[in-house]
Amino acid sequence: xxxxxxxxxxxxxxxxxxxxxxxxxxxxxxxxxxxxxxxxxxxxxxxxxxxxxxxxxxxxxxxxxxxxxxxxxxxxxxxxxxxxxxxxxxxxxxxxxxxxxxxxxxxxxxxxxxxxxxxxxxxxxxxxxxxxxxxxxxxxxxxxxxxxxxxxxxxxxxxxxxxxxxxxxxxxxxxxxxxxxxxxxxxxxxxxxx
Length: 194
Known about the structure:
With 194 residues, the protein is mainly α. The chain contains nine helices and no strands.
């Protein structure tokens, strides 16, 4: 399989599972429109590109970052959950989930780190001078495709939701973000105790 195809499939499959980043992109799309959600998704895709580059060039120390990344990411997710719970509509906390916010959260997400570390171990990035560039391009393209689809879908639903629905989406999002944050902090504590 060509490295561009392999990278695209892996980039899409790593971005697609519903998690805190997907939730933030969804909320930003509902609050500010599909373009704003897509820009937030580009932050996550750029972080995926960074990890794809590390994987493509065979750097396998990603797992060593798991504990500090989990602590930072978990704390940030708990803070976002608190802000989201306090906001009356989807807009206030969604502002924290722009390009820079999703970029930082994706870089600090232990599952992203482990996914790319597993990618190095199982599939690798191939060999040859041009292979890493094709692989990285594929990872970015696959991730961008997912975020474009998610933002566009949420953008289409934006005008069909009443303000009361948005408040309930906000409260549910806050609880889910808190659960992800607590889970990440638990990972960090287990890493410190190990």
